[in-house]
Amino acid sequence: MNVIYSPENGKNFISFEAEGKTIDFADGELAFRVDKRERDEEVVIDICKDYTGGLVMGAGNGESYVAQLTIPAREYEETEKPNPGYDPDNEEGTEQPTITERNPVPFSMDKCTLTLWEMEV
User: pTM value?
Assistant: First the structure.
Protein backbone atom coordinates (compact mmCIF):
# COMPACT_ATOMS: atom_id res chain seq x y z
CA MET A 1 0.00 0.00 0.00
CA ASN A 2 1.26 3.45 -0.85
CA VAL A 3 1.28 5.64 2.29
CA ILE A 4 1.41 9.45 2.09
CA TYR A 5 2.12 11.55 5.20
CA SER A 6 0.79 15.10 5.21
CA PRO A 7 2.81 17.07 6.03
CA GLU A 8 5.83 14.91 5.28
CA ASN A 9 7.68 16.19 8.33
CA GLY A 10 4.69 15.72 10.67
CA LYS A 11 5.06 13.82 13.92
CA ASN A 12 1.58 12.90 15.18
CA PHE A 13 -0.18 10.45 12.84
CA ILE A 14 -2.74 7.79 13.66
CA SER A 15 -1.29 4.31 14.01
CA PHE A 16 -2.42 1.71 11.51
CA GLU A 17 -1.69 -1.85 10.50
CA ALA A 18 -2.49 -3.42 7.15
CA GLU A 19 -2.49 -7.20 7.15
CA GLY A 20 -3.84 -9.21 4.27
CA LYS A 21 -6.98 -7.43 3.09
CA THR A 22 -7.73 -5.76 6.45
CA ILE A 23 -6.72 -2.33 7.72
CA ASP A 24 -6.77 -1.55 11.43
CA PHE A 25 -6.53 1.96 12.88
CA ALA A 26 -5.50 2.88 16.43
CA ASP A 27 -4.94 -0.68 17.65
CA GLY A 28 -8.40 -2.02 16.87
CA GLU A 29 -10.51 1.09 17.36
CA LEU A 30 -11.61 0.94 13.71
CA ALA A 31 -10.88 -1.98 11.41
CA PHE A 32 -12.43 -3.26 8.19
CA ARG A 33 -11.84 -5.50 5.17
CA VAL A 34 -10.73 -3.23 2.35
CA ASP A 35 -11.55 -5.70 -0.42
CA LYS A 36 -15.24 -5.60 0.61
CA ARG A 37 -15.27 -1.88 -0.34
CA GLU A 38 -13.86 -2.37 -3.86
CA ARG A 39 -16.23 -1.29 -6.65
CA ASP A 40 -16.14 -0.71 -10.41
CA GLU A 41 -15.26 2.94 -9.69
CA GLU A 42 -12.68 4.45 -7.34
CA VAL A 43 -13.75 4.47 -3.69
CA VAL A 44 -12.51 7.05 -1.18
CA ILE A 45 -13.05 6.36 2.52
CA ASP A 46 -12.55 9.20 5.00
CA ILE A 47 -11.45 8.31 8.52
CA CYS A 48 -12.16 11.06 11.04
CA LYS A 49 -12.24 11.69 14.77
CA ASP A 50 -15.66 12.58 16.11
CA TYR A 51 -16.46 15.01 18.92
CA THR A 52 -15.62 12.34 21.52
CA GLY A 53 -12.23 11.57 19.98
CA GLY A 54 -13.42 8.22 18.61
CA LEU A 55 -12.79 7.12 15.05
CA VAL A 56 -15.59 7.17 12.50
CA MET A 57 -15.87 6.44 8.80
CA GLY A 58 -17.10 9.37 6.75
CA ALA A 59 -16.61 13.10 7.00
CA GLY A 60 -20.25 13.76 7.92
CA ASN A 61 -19.81 12.36 11.43
CA GLY A 62 -16.28 13.63 11.97
CA GLU A 63 -14.73 16.68 13.52
CA SER A 64 -11.24 16.30 12.04
CA TYR A 65 -9.64 14.16 9.35
CA VAL A 66 -6.98 11.64 10.35
CA ALA A 67 -6.76 9.46 7.22
CA GLN A 68 -8.18 8.80 3.79
CA LEU A 69 -8.07 5.45 2.03
CA THR A 70 -8.32 5.42 -1.76
CA ILE A 71 -9.26 2.11 -3.37
CA PRO A 72 -8.80 2.10 -7.14
CA ALA A 73 -11.55 0.89 -9.46
CA ARG A 74 -11.80 -2.87 -9.84
CA GLU A 75 -9.85 -4.14 -12.84
CA TYR A 76 -10.94 -6.89 -15.18
CA GLU A 77 -9.25 -9.32 -17.55
CA GLU A 78 -11.19 -9.66 -20.78
CA THR A 79 -11.05 -12.74 -22.96
CA GLU A 80 -12.83 -13.50 -26.22
CA LYS A 81 -14.47 -16.89 -26.51
CA PRO A 82 -16.84 -18.53 -28.96
CA ASN A 83 -20.48 -17.68 -28.44
CA PRO A 84 -22.42 -20.92 -27.80
CA GLY A 85 -25.66 -19.22 -28.92
CA TYR A 86 -24.29 -18.11 -32.29
CA ASP A 87 -25.97 -19.61 -35.36
CA PRO A 88 -24.29 -18.49 -38.59
CA ASP A 89 -27.23 -19.83 -40.62
CA ASN A 90 -29.78 -17.63 -38.84
CA GLU A 91 -30.02 -14.55 -41.08
CA GLU A 92 -32.23 -12.65 -38.63
CA GLY A 93 -30.07 -13.41 -35.59
CA THR A 94 -28.29 -10.61 -33.78
CA GLU A 95 -25.80 -12.85 -32.02
CA GLN A 96 -22.09 -12.31 -32.54
CA PRO A 97 -19.69 -15.21 -33.22
CA THR A 98 -17.68 -14.40 -30.07
CA ILE A 99 -18.47 -12.99 -26.66
CA THR A 100 -16.25 -11.12 -24.24
CA GLU A 101 -15.88 -12.66 -20.81
CA ARG A 102 -14.85 -10.29 -18.00
CA ASN A 103 -13.19 -11.74 -14.90
CA PRO A 104 -12.17 -9.49 -12.01
CA VAL A 105 -8.46 -9.27 -11.25
CA PRO A 106 -7.80 -10.39 -7.64
CA PHE A 107 -7.83 -7.52 -5.14
CA SER A 108 -4.45 -6.15 -4.07
CA MET A 109 -3.80 -3.81 -1.13
CA ASP A 110 -0.63 -2.74 -2.98
CA LYS A 111 -2.79 -0.69 -5.36
CA CYS A 112 -4.47 1.28 -2.54
CA THR A 113 -3.28 4.63 -1.21
CA LEU A 114 -3.51 5.68 2.43
CA THR A 115 -3.12 9.38 3.17
CA LEU A 116 -2.46 10.23 6.82
CA TRP A 117 -2.95 13.76 8.17
CA GLU A 118 -1.12 15.03 11.18
CA MET A 119 -3.45 15.07 14.18
CA GLU A 120 -3.74 17.89 16.67
CA VAL A 121 -2.06 17.14 19.97
Answer: 0.84
